[in-house]
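tool=predict chain=A
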Amino acid sequence: MMMRKIQLPFTQTQKVRYERAIERLQSLSSTVNSDASVIVTDTIPVNHEDAFLKGHGTSEVDGELLATVCGVVERVDKLVYVRTLRARYKPEVGDIVVGRVIEVAQKRWRVELNFTQDGVLMLSSMNMPDGSQRRRTSVDELNMRNIFVEHDVVCAEVRSIQHDGSLQLHARSQKYGKLEKGQLLKVDPYLVKRSKHHFHYIESLGIDLIIGCNGFIWVGEHVEVRDPVMMIDDQKDAEMISSSSSTKEQSHTPLETRQNICRIGNAIRVLSNLGFTVTVEVITETLNLSNSKNIDIHNMLGSEFHVVVAENEAERRREKRKK
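tool=predict ok
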């Protein structure tokens, strides 16, 4: 268990409470899994009688499985690998990523992805706004800025990794595309675990949460994903209706929704500061904790709430261990 040091103006009491919570977390981690943290050449205990697969960060030498990098041992079925800590984003095909457009070029957009190189989203790999499936024309290329412009936040999927390390993206689904009415957060990529679901809808708050594998997280107002055919019908109907009043109404985000976005955003910032894994379950629990303690949104980033979250996480893991 590796905890980062945070620079906050702790009082003496808060400092003692925080250090005590961190000690409990470290002891729980070492007790539950003694080989969790490894350095180079450390032996990783495995049952040689059962078949196992050597993953990233491991090597078999003289019948022993050794770690070739520093990190945490992870086991997925028969696969054993070492997840490096505080490492850069390491892309895989199929990753859900969130990024920011930095350039509109010929038939492509360049997207910042918190990676050593920028991602490339080709016009041909982009779902058209009207939902139609057709070949891209010169007119589409001229109208690229009607889809994305610089500084737009977008969601896409890693399509392929080129020989030079650059990433090819695609957004051929209605769940991908431009993200609006929210805020973009950045955490260390190692705090995000790959899972089957990276799109989350917190129904009670009306908030969409997209946890990108690259460490960019989007928190925004909920948007309904509609069927392409329905989108075309809606577009035809919209041409017959005056949009003066409706456009203003649609562009307005209710105060309560904006407060929920800020509260979730601050919960993620606190988890990131403490070095805790960022999942929708932990985010929701941190959110509920701030509400139960009657902590204002702007006070969530203060010293006291960081201590409370650390103590709550230690208690949660202790209860989980009992079960």
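Residues 37-85 form a domain with the OB fold (Dihydrolipoamide Acetyltransferase, E2P) fold (CATH 2.40.50.100). The CA atoms of residues 107 and 123 lie 5 Å apart.
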